[in-house]
Structure prediction request, 388 residues.
Amino acid sequence: MRLLHTSDWHLGRSFHRVSLLDAQRAFLDHLVATVRAERVDAVLVAGDVYDRAVPPLAAVELFDDALHRLADLGVPTVMISGNHDSARRLGVGAGLIQRAGIHLRTDPAGCGTPVVLADAHGDVAFYGLPYLEPALVRDTLGAPAASHAAVLGAAMDRVRADLAARPAGTRAVVLAHAFVTGGTPSDSERDISVGGVGSVPAALFDGVHYAALGHLHGCQTLSPRVRYSGSPLAYSFSEADHRKSMWLADLAADGTVTAERVDCPVPRPLARIRGHLEDLLADPALERHEDAWVEATLTDPVRPRDPMARLARRFPHTVSLLFEPDRAPGDPLLSYARRLHGRTDRQIAEDFVAHVRGGQGPDAAERAVLTAALDAVRVTDTVREVAR
Prediction:
């Protein structure tokens, strides 16, 4: 059975205030063309269909058009909700849409109920595990703790129990939206950590033949049977070096998987340039970036006059301008933002405690209180977004 694995469409998202709707439309055209040309048997969409819980109308229309085109091809599509989606909104009408071959899996309670498709070698059971917010789904799944590993483990227990009751030789595919240990994140992914831990072990997917993952925006192979497709477009400059693609995966009769990447259209390349303004404007080696979306980091000791306007004359698609003046490492004027770069909210909070107490950081009990408070804020924000 030939599968096309994709995820993280983020329909409705912009790139530094530049609309990406045309680029997302081009990607969906490419997806439909790939399904037709490669004779795909099933399309898998592993979450984050939309960029936010209440997407703009243009994004909803784009999604609606994609569903109609996939249904017209007669190729089954299985998709799950991600942490950016409103599971309830995305799942509206799922029962009716299923009649057209579009299988939306947004309810955590249905983790153990697969979409069953067949090829010449027998049945293939597709289990859709939507994004599982630990504090919200722990009781539903009967998980022993409110952690990502616990709730995903409980969901996979349901998958394995259902699979064990099916005829011998039934192959199993899981769609999941999670941060699996060993994956490499990007700046454009929303933090889903709980208790300071956001990742889950790949071993949770033992017992199935292929895990089609979403959430991380870089295409990655954690093992031949556990893969991220990544996002079809770059959504931050941290993805400047990504090769955006989908997985075309062939599931053999014995459950082994072979896969190849299908490149996605690139609306405009991304470039990060750094240096003194005059050097950036004059360097001939930067000519190749003149048609790219540019993030420029200026290192001039004194902020130049009208830097954005001057950059835009050479690089008309400059969308991000940063200032990091050249300073000695111990210079007290080194920016606060630079000192915090790459640190988590928990690390920043713990550093603050140490700062106000003369270098004495939080003890284990205080660290637990800080972690619980940060988790509570994140869960409250999630609940509010889902309720909108």
User: Anything to note?
Assistant: Residues 2-263 form a domain with the Purple Acid Phosphatase; chain A, domain 2 fold (CATH 3.60.21.10).
